[in-house]
Amino acid sequence: MADQTSHASQEGATRIIIASAALNAVLATVQAAAGYSAHSSGLMADALHAITDIGVDLILLAACWFAGLGNRVGTGAGRSARWRRYAGFVQNAAPPVVGVVLVIAGIEIALYAQDRPPLAGSATTVALSIAAFSAVSRGLLYRALSLKARRSHSPAHSSVLSAAAWHVGADALSSLVATVGIATASLGYTGLDAIAAALIGLVIAYSGVRLVVPPVAGVLRRLSKAIAPGVAAKKSG
Question: Which domain of life is it from (predicted)?
């Protein structure tokens, strides 16, 4: 029964991450075309963000699959224990790996920001509509991922889905920033579009830092506990 529940949890996690990758592929294509036509730095930055997200989704998909592999291989106690250790490693490693990718991508996107006034007319209207759709769709995906992570019966899958939810939440916020930047730029405040692009990069980098810091802090705490007895022995000696 537990194996069936874990398998169902993995299938649900896999489906929703695949949906995220498909959404990012569509958005990256459409946003890049619309951003280029409208000369919108904000939308182009968001398109680059979507491209990096596809890579992140692939990392999460592999982590989710590997975390559930132990339930499908071997029946021996030793072999099962070994795969559980591998699953635990994936559970701990996937979020910081995703975080590092997001930090690098965020910095690159922030540096990419250029002050290029959007074109007037239909190109800007289309770009604004796409940015708004991106913000809404990613917001809905964030809610779905967060709910799935809370309901997951597998700690490894829950960890992977939480990491996915964090980066999709950053996606939704970056799309919202791009929407505001395009809207204000179309009213004549052209510099705000470049600022929006820079803010998108910073939002992405911050979400990455949030994923990296907790596991790194945990490793440092364990190292501190491991070396503390030796340090105390040297001082007493």
Answer: Bacteria
